[in-house]
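Deliverable D2.4 — example input (C-alpha cells):
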C-alpha cells in the first residue's frame, strides 16, 4: 500500500510540471504559457489594458540583465473573470485571474 501511494505521489508531481496555463481569448482562440507575444496578438483581440515595465535580474558574473515585462489585462464585463497575461521578453509566462470584470 505504501509503495502505491509513493508511486501515485511521484506521478502527480511529474504530471503537474507539464501543465500550462491556458487562456481562452474573447474570440474563442486558446493561448498557453510559452506562446510568443506575436502568437497571442494574432490569436486574441487587443487587451483592455497594457502595463509595460522593465525589471532587472542578476546575470552571469554579477552582470545586470534587463527583462521586458508586459501585463495584458482582458476585462470582458461583470459576468466574466478578468484575466492578466504576463509576458517576459516576449513569451507568455503566466495567466492569472483577478475577480469579475466591470
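Example output (designed residues):
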Amino acid at each position: 500500500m505504501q509503495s502505491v501511494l509513493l508511486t501515485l505521489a511521484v506521478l502527480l508531481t511529474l504530471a503537474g510540471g507539464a501543465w500550462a496555463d491556458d487562456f481562452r481569448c474573447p474570440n474563442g482562440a486558446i493561448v498557453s504559457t510559452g506562446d510568443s507575444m506575436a502568437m497571442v496578438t494574432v490569436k486574441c483581440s487587443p487587451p483592455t489594458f497594457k502595463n509595460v515595465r522593465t525589471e532587472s535580474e542578476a546575470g552571469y558574473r554579477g552582470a545586470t540583465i534587463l527583462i521586458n515585462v508586459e501585463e495584458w489585462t482582458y476585462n470582458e464585463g461583470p459576468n466574466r473573470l478578468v484575466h492578466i497575461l504576463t509576458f517576459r521578453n516576449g513569451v507568455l509566462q503566466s495567466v492569472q485571474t483577478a475577480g469579475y470584470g466591470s
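Confidence is low (pLDDT under 50) at residues 4-18.
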